[in-house]
Design goal:
The protein has helices at residues 6-13, 28-39, 59-62, 83-93, 107-122, 125-130, 134-137, 147-163, 177-190, 198-208, 211-223; strands at residues 2-4, 17-22, 44-49, 72-75, 78-81. The chain is α+β, with helices and mostly antiparallel strands and 224 residues long. It folds into two domains: 2-100, 3-Layer(aba) Sandwich (Glutaredoxin), CATH 3.40.30.10; 107-214, Glutathione S-transferase Yfyf (Class Pi), Chain A, domain 2 (Up-down Bundle), CATH 1.20.1050.10. It starts with a strand and ends with a helix.
Length: 224
């Protein structure tokens, strides 16, 4: 378990936040919530749940998480699961100008960012299965992609070719939480050594170096 500025947080905002993730820190969706909290400057306590041991099915956790899943965020007596819902809640409750926004300002870019978030959570299943996030911080998967995995990779890289400029910059000019979700999906290929265009590699490297992402995978490496 990692404590992050819990005392100063209670003093500053008068509430206590706890983010629950899996013990291996392999959840890209927990990473998205973690990144949102850090980018907004919201100190919190980070706790891990051992999914292999079934801790998420225990009554104590089921009372916190309506769906018995990670990530779950508790704010005082309120708890919320599912990363997209958590991020939207944090964006509304801790909104600009008092707190940084994690979404683009332009309405069309904002909508596209949400589209990407929904897409990487609901599609590309073969790629998510064959190139799990453990390849980012642990052992590579030496098996070639299956035909379905190749199809998913081609679909992902086609979208990347449209969205990423030649310099590998942020998707919408300035950083947004969609950059975390999209780059992690692409990093399943990059980190494993699967071929990707040079601009995609640059984009992933840039996003991976952002402190909110880099620190998360540092936690994961400690557990591997």
């Amino acid at each position: 378990m990692c404590n992050i500025f819990a005392h100063s947080f209670r003093k500053h905002l008068g509430v206590i936040m706890i983010l629950y993730t899996n013990r291996q820190y392999s959840s890209p969706y927990a990473l998205s919530v973690y990144a949102t909290l850090l980018e907004k400057g919201l100190p919190f306590e980070l706790r891990t749940i051992d999914l292999t041991a079934g801790e998420h099915t225990e009554a104590s956790y089921s009372q916190l998480s309506l769906t018995s899943r990670v990530p779950t965020l508790t704010i005082d007596d309120f708890s919320l699961s599912e990363s997209s819902a958590i991020i939207e809640y944090l964006e509304e409750r801790y909104a600009p100008p008092d707190f940084a926004s994690v979404f683009p300002h332009n309405p069309r870019h904002r909508a596209r960012a949400r589209q990407l978030q929904a897409w990487v959570r609901s599609d590309l299943g073969a790629l998510r299965e064959e190139r799990q996030t453990t390849v980012i911080y642990g052992q590579k998967n030496l098996q070639p992609l299956s035909p379905e995995g190749q199809k998913a990779a081609h679909k992902l890289l086609a979208a990347a070719d449209t969205l990423i400029d030649e310099e590998g910059g942020h998707l919408f000019g300035t950083w947004s939480i969609a950059d975390v979700d999209f780059s992690v999906m692409l990093n399943r290929l990059c980190a494993n050594g699967d071929p990707v265009p040079h601009k995609v590699q640059r984009y992933v490297e840039r996003q991976s170096a952002r402190p909110c992402v880099e620190s998360w995978w540092a936690f994961a490496r400690q557990q591997s």
